[in-house]
Amino acid sequence: MIRAILHVDMDAFFASVEQHDRPELAGKPVVVGHPGARGVVAAASYEVRRFGVRSAMPMSTALRLCSAAICVPPRMTRYRDVSRQVFAVFHEITPLVQGLSLDEAFLDVTGSIELLGTPPAIARRIKDEIRSRTGLTASVGVATNKLVAKIASDLEKPDGLTVVPAERIREVLDPLSVRRLPGLGRKLGEKVEAAGLRTLGQLRGAPDALLWQLFGRDASGVRERAAGVDERPVLTDLEEKSLSAEDTFARDLQDPRALDTHLCRLAQTACQRLRHKGLMTARIGVKIRCHDFTTFTRQQAIAPPTQAERAIRDVARDLLRRWLTEHRGAKLRLLGVMLGGLSPARQMGLFETAERGGDEARLDSALEQVRARFGDAALRRGNLLK
User: Which one of 18, 104, 129, 309 is the catalytic residue?
Assistant: First the structure.
């Protein structure tokens, strides 16, 4: 049976949530993010994109391109809540859901066709359900593999639905810019265009020598991707290998106490994501980037696997403390918490004691319920207080 793969991508997700929740922002140029020298655009509404503003752009650049832009601070708790509603729609369609972020996922709906209809009909159903439950729009690409579905979902944004049957893959992909190829990157894209390869069709048909010069050992893989060849399966959340939370500071930080506070907050965020996905971690790490962009990682395996915030936080804090002891006076621009070795969370046994983590699990659950209802700042652990 030919696979039916959907790539669903919410349209300007964070910005659209803000415009939905605050009607006075509807139709306005909205950027979500923190202002400041190191602020980065987390999301840009379609009204502000006309000025060249894009996600991941420095906020200072965005405000220079569009002086009328309205800068809105992110509300991650709210975005996660809407994301849960969106992913609930996905899981009603198929168990084969691979979440890429809060607002983006691959779905393998091959096994749903007999019950729910053709892949385009399933895509329309998903779009309608998302709009009904959240008031937001999504763009969907429908294809026989993940690569083509992802490219297709971006071709008719916003609120698009693009279907690319197997027999039309080259017809659709060949005229597209090489910049449409996922994973190419800006700098490599510029290099490829400078070599005279501006479309995916030209990239697909380029001489081996030129591709080797540009991509080295990955040359044949790039040619296949340009032709729309992709055999990767849709991996469910339980097959994820890792997740993380990281933050770039507005100014370089050197104070160990301030760094510890930031690390505890990041551990809290990573643990929330872990619990939302019903996973446990067996490997905890920290990511450290210095002012000169030198990057370090430190990791530690733990047993048994856990999703308890205290346990994860304590290991991460110890890793950071040891690194800071080895690098006294270091100034950091970025800090992150990484969780690996993921596995499905098991249900606690009836007679398990507090020493086995029962009280911690109940505390984490209670804290999360309070934050979901009243916001992240409603209730905090003492080590997160400034």
Answer: 104
